[in-house]
Structures are given as structure tokens and as C-alpha cells.
Task: structure prediction
Amino acid sequence: MRTEIEQTADGSHTLFVPELDEHYHSVNGAIQESTHIFINTGVNHCPKKDIRIFEVGFGTGLNAYLTALEAEKQQKKIHYTTIEAYPLPSELTEKLNYARQIDKSTQGLFDKLHTAEWEKDIQILPYFILHKIEADFKSFRLNELHDIDLVYFDAFAPDKQPDMWSQEIFDLLYQIMNRGGILVTYCAKGVIRRMMQQAGFTVERLPGPPGKREMLRATKE
Result:
């Protein structure tokens, strides 16, 4: 898919996909959106010191980058598995400005996330292990994963990719998660909330990041 770099309201980059008429992140601020949804209501809500995360959609690597920084800051050991059907080319990822926005000294970390070998565990930082899977999420055998504590559900919006938001998928995610595990997503649509509840999750509506009224956090009680 062809992508174009755009600057969001907080100065950080996102990508625009003309084919889908969709952005990878909120135009109101990519970094602040990812920090709010995946770090503040995800990682920081998980009391464990050893966390297994599964991310649906590696994309720009922003979520993984922020999580790696947080892992070192909090000294939480994080094993981060992420799936991506369309890895971005290096000539594109090298232009993304997340490290320049947060801390220029971490540019090497961001680059390492993208150059890390696929399909194996890679020790990126002392507290952060990355495992990238190059596959189509819809055909990936989710039951190969297990003991997941936190899911970042960051697929394109339901009206853009409806087959990524199905009852079957939420049922499978529920099955591979540990008791007490949580799933966070920017999407707050009622139909998605009801799918999560049908799968067995307890679902909360939480305040969303700037520009978005609500988001969802689902817990496997």
C-alpha cells in the first residue's frame, strides 16, 4: 500500500494511506495518542513486572518504541510480540521523527526495532524483547500464542477493515490471554464493545486522547 508522511498536531508524524483514506495515527497527535492509549491505560495499568504484550499492527513502530522506553524507565520486563502484513520500507521509517520529538539519543533504538530480524526473539534493550511476525493477522493462527497479559488492538478502523474486527477474533484473543489480562484500543464503537463482552471481557469506556471522546479497555476477569 502506498503511504505518505504527514505531520500531526503534536508535531509527530503519521502515515496516510490514500487507498483506504486512512491514517495510521490520530491527526490530533500521533505520540500523544499512542502514549494515552497504550502506555497510560495499558502498560501502566498492568501491575505485573514481567509482561507479555501482543500488538495487532506493528505499523510505524511507534507503539513498540514507546513501550521499550517505558520498559526501561519502569524496569518492567516486557516480551513484545507484534504482527504486520505490510512492513514499511526503511527509506520511509528512517524519515519518521518520533525519536527527534522525544529524545534524539534514542534514534538508534527506533531504528533497531525496524531492522530487527523477523520471526525470532530479539533482545532490543535489557528489559525489552521484540518478536516480529510478518503475516496477515486474519489468517494467522492466534492459538499459537499464549499467556498474553496485554493486547494492543491497533488495526485500521472497523469501517476501513471490518474483517479485522470480528467476534471470532475477540473470542480467540480472550482465549490466549492470562486471567487479569487487558486489551486496549482506540475504537469505542458500541458494536465492538458488545463483541468484547460476548467474548467474556469486562469492558470499560475511558476518556480518549485529544480529539477522541472515548476509548475501550477490556479485562479478562
Summary: The domain at 29-219 is CATH 3.40.50.150 (Rossmann fold).
